[in-house]
Design brief:
Layout: E1 2-8, H1 10-14, H2 21-28, E2 41-50, H3 52-58, E3 68-75, E4 79-80, H4 86-105, E5 108-109, E6 118-123, E7 126-131, E8 138-139, H5 164-167, H6 175-192, E9 193-194, E10 197-198, H7 214-226, H8 238-271, H9 287-295, H10 298-307
Antiparallel strand pairs: 1-3, 2-3, 4-6, 5-8, 6-7, 9-10
Helix pairs in contact: 4-6, 4-10, 6-8, 8-10
C-alpha cells in the first residue's frame, strides 16, 4: 500500500536528507527486538517543490503556520486492530505498547496513539503488532520546538490535554500520557465492537467523543470513569471485560493523583507567593515503573498467557 502526505517544512525538512520520519524510526530500530515492530517502509519519495505550487493552481490559501512538502510512502499492507477481538486484540494491542515504549526510550515520541495508528500483520504464522503513522511524532534531537505541542486524536488523548491548559499547550507531553491513550484505545475498541464488528448506532458508547471539542470530551471522560455501566460490557469476553474494568480503575487513580497534585501546587503557591508554579516539565518520569503498574496486574498477565499459550 502507499500513502501521499503533506508535512510542515520546519523540523521535518531538516530530516529530508535522511528520508521520512518513518525511515528514521526504522534506522533507530534496525536491531532486534525493535525491528519486527516497525512499519516496513519499502520506498519513499520527497517532491522537490513544496505544495505551494499546487495550492496556487487550485486557489487554496497557504497555511498560516509553516510551508509544506509532499512525499510518498510505500509500505507493507497492514491490517487495522479493530479487525481483531478477544485475546488476539489484546496480544496486538500489547505489542503496540511494547513497540511504542521501546521507541520512546530511543528518543522517538509518537504522541498520537489511536486505533487508526495501531496495525498488525502476520509473519511466520505469528501476529505482529506495530505502532504506525509518525506524522505527529518527534525525535529527541529535533532542532525545532517540541514537547508541549497540542497533538493527538481527541477521543484517545490523556485527560491532562483535554483541559483549557492542555489545549493552550501548557502541559508537557510525557510517556504516561501516551500510555493513558493506549488504555483509552483498549476501552474504546472493547466497548464499541463485538467480534470485530462495530455495534449499531445507539447501542455503542462514546459516539459523541469524536464530535465534541477537547475540553467537553475531557468532562465526558471524567463522567465515564465514575459511571461505568454494566450494559457497556454485555457480550465482552470475561477476561477482556475484567481487564477493561481494571484499566478504568487505574485511570481513576491516575486522575485522582493529578487532581491531588494540582491542589498541592496551589497550596505551595500560597505559601510561596510570587514563586513560579512547578509544571510537569520538571516531574521525573519513571517509564518502566509506570508501565509496570499495568503489566503486573493479574488480568494483564492472564490475557498475556491466553494470547501466547506457547510462551
Amino acid at each position: 500500500m502507499y500513502s501521499i502526505r503533506e508535512k510542515e517544512k520546519d523540523s521535518e525538512v531538516l530530516r529530508e536528507a535522511q528520508g521520512s520520519l518513518g525511515q528514521e524510526c526504522h534506522d533507530i530500530a534496525e536491531q532486534p527486538p525493535l525491528a519486527r515492530w516497525q512499519p516496513e517502509l519499502l520506498w519513499h519519495y520527497t517532491f522537490t517543490s513544496s505544495t505551494s505550487d499546487f495550492r496556487e493552481v487550485l486557489g487554496v490559501p497557504e497555511p498560516t503556520k509553516g510551508s509544506r512538502v509532499l512525499y510518498i510512502l510505500v509500505s507493507r499492507k497492514l491490517k487495522p486492530i479493530t479487525e481483531l477481538h478477544g485475546e488476539e486484540l489484546f496480544d496486538v494491542w500489547r505489542q503496540c505498547i511494547l513497540c511504542h515504549v521501546t521507541l520512546w526510550k530511543e528518543g522517538v515520541y509518537h504522541r498520537d496513539v489511536s486505533p487508526a495508528n495501531m496495525k498488525w500483520y502476520r509473519k511466520d504464522g505469528k501476529r505482529i503488532g506495530i505502532s504506525n503513522d509518525y506524522d505527529f511524532s518527534s525525535l529527541a534531537d529535533d532542532l525545532g520546538p517540541r514537547g508541549n505541542e497540542r497533538t493527538g486524536t481527541v477521543p484517545f488523548m490523556a485527560i491532562d490535554f483535554l483541559t483549557e491548559e492542555g489545549q493552550r499547550g501548557e502541559v508537557k507531553h510525557l510517556y504516561r500520557h501516551d500510555l493513558e491513550s493506549f488504555m483509552w484505545v483498549f476501552i474504546w475498541v472493547c466497548l464499541r465492537y463485538r467480534e470485530a464488528v462495530l455495534l449499531p448506532t445507539g447501542s455503542r458508547p462514546f459516539d459523541n467523543w469524536a464530535t465534541i471539542n477537547a475540553v467537553a470530551c475531557g468532562k465526558e471522560k471524567h463522567h465515564f470513569l465514575s459511571n461505568l455501566k454494566d450494559r457497556y460490557l454485555w457480550g465482552v469476553d470475561k477476561y477482556m471485560g475484567h481487564f477493561v474494568v481494571k484499566c478504568v480503575i487505574m485511570l481513576q487513580q491516575n486522575d485522582q493523583h493529578r487532581v491531588s497534585r494540582c491542589i498541592e501546587l496551589l497550596a505551595e503557591r500560597i505559601l510561596n507567593q510570587g514563586a513560579t508554579e512547578q509544571s510537569n516539565d520538571e516531574e521525573p518520569e519513571d517509564i518502566d515503573g509506570f508501565l509496570q503498574m499495568f503489566t503486573t496486574m493479574p488480568s494483564w498477565v492472564k490475557l498475556t498467557e491466553l494470547s501466547n499459550p506457547s510462551q
